[in-house]
Amino acid sequence: MDTAGELKHVWVRRQLQDLVATTMRPGDALLGERQLEEQFGVSRITVRRAISDLVQDGALVRIKGKGTFVSHGLVRSTLHLASFNEDMRAAGFEPSTRVINASTAVPPAAAADHLGLAPGEAAFRVRRLRLANGAPVSVDESWLPPALVPGLLSEDLTGSLYRALGAAGHPVQHAEQTVEAAAAPDETAALLDIEPGAPVLLFRRRSFTGQEDPGTPIEYAVSTYRSDRYQVSMRLGAG
User: Hey, what domains does the chain have and what are their CATH numbers?
Assistant: First the structure.
């Protein structure tokens, strides 16, 4: 081992980066810590620190009980109003969508309250798995008022929902959004290919159409993102 004056964990990290970039593909499993320890002639602690650095950088991902794998890429997004497809393309990824459910159902209380629906009144429910470069990133569930977009369920929902709303004459003009840490429930974890209870980012968005303030409620959405594949950044100013 010739570290040329580098700290050992930095040298190992660089070797692993080269390995990932030149001989491995997204989803490939990394060798075990013991094998890497022997290959590089360093301690287990050094190997673990190098791997942890690459996990933190988004180059590798750890899956409990399975091992460490080459990441499909970390999507870095700024907080702004955009569709998933626009967000992914802006970050350099190719988006795709699989529709899990598109039906009429009675929404949960938070969605009904935002959409101004009476108790027991139905809404359109659109639940979709969103992918970037073929890898699952989020599960999105949207609730929409049938009175405003009666033909929505006949549209191609693998594309942009915001584009479909705009084509129906109800473009999303602004939204209110919160984000929090959560644990993935079993069904969502299976769709995202993560362990049940794994940490995820939970976004809740209330969207409005129309130019008036506050506008007409058009969508209530809950999106669950893999925290190892999606990162939110923001620019802050003084004052």
Answer: 8-70 (1.10.10.10), 75-233 (3.40.1410.10)
